[in-house]
Specification:
The protein has helices at residues 19-30, 60-69, 91-102, 144-152, 159-165, 207-220; strands at 7-10, 35-39, 50-53, 75-80, 108-110, 113-114, 119-120, 127-129, 140-143, 172-175, 182-183, 187-188, 200-201, 204-206, 229-230. The chain is of the alpha/beta class. The protein starts with 6 loop residues before the first strand and ends with a strand.
Length: 231
């Protein structure tokens, strides 16, 4: 089963070792969904996808200006290549949330729950907001024009400063179904889009929080890593 809007995956050839796991899981769980891969240079390993390139001599926000100009669709799901799916997607809920973004009922929906105190949306009781609901580098349903405005409002910045610079706007929400399992200090596992948040931390595999999921992936894909572990 596919998703009605495309997924835009941001990556770099420095992360090629992660691609077999990430794209293998993507194919397993989302079927025929259109995938854009934003990458610093085209690569034969990405031939199954729509590749859009960016100049990696530019800052992160400038790269996204280039990327978004090459995207045809107005609404999409954004994520990075180290956010690896590990379980079935809830397509029914995902499509409902996509429609909210498409029809401008909300500005964005982050597919992870963060924090402890939440205010419910009047649109849908499973959508909540707090200071963590603002756009960040996590899988998010968003419109191109909204993302372009976020990038435009930020002078050239790297990924970390960009995330810090974003302020909360009315209409930014996260998903809370009510029975999410807490993972780490602040965030919960997504029950709609179950993914590792994130698999790579400071260049190392995140075994501190996701050893079970990552070891399962290593076994499934007969994967041998040269990266160190984050423990």
């Amino acid at each position: 089963m596919g998703i009605s809007v495309p997924i835009i995956v941001y990556t770099h050839t420095d992360m090629k070792d992660v691609w077999p796991l990430f794209f293998g899981q993507l194919k397993k769980y989302i079927g025929g969904t259109k995938i854009y891969v934003a990458v610093n240079q085209t690569d034969a390993e990405l031939s199954d996808y729509v590749q859009v390139t960016y100049d990696d001599s530019n800052q992160y926000t400038q790269r996204w200006e280039e990327i978004l100009e090459q995207i045809e669709e107005e609404t999409f799901i954004f994520l990075h290549e180290d956010m690896i799916l590990f379980d079935e997607i809830n397509f029914q809920l995902l499509e409902k949330y996509i429609e909210y973004v498409k029809n401008n009922s909300v500005k964005s929906i982050k597919l992870i729950l963060v924090g402890d105190h939440f205010n419910e949306s009047s649109v849908d009781e499973t959508l909540v907001t707090n200071s963590f609901a603002k756009f960040s580098i996590q899988p998010t349903i968003i419109q191109k024009k909204t993302f372009q405005q976020l990038v435009k409002n930020s002078y050239p910045m790297n990924i970390w400063k960009f995330e810090e610079s974003i302020i909360s706007f009315e209409g930014d929400f996260m998903v809370r179904l009510g029975n999410e399992i807490k993972r780490g200090l602040y965030h919960y596992d997504s029950l709609v889009f179950p993914y590792i948040a994130t698999a790579i931390v400071k260049g190392k595999w995140n075994m501190l929080e996701y050893s079970k999921e990552i070891n399962t992936l290593f076994e499934t894909y007969k994967f041998k890593t040269t990266r160190e572990y984050f423990v």
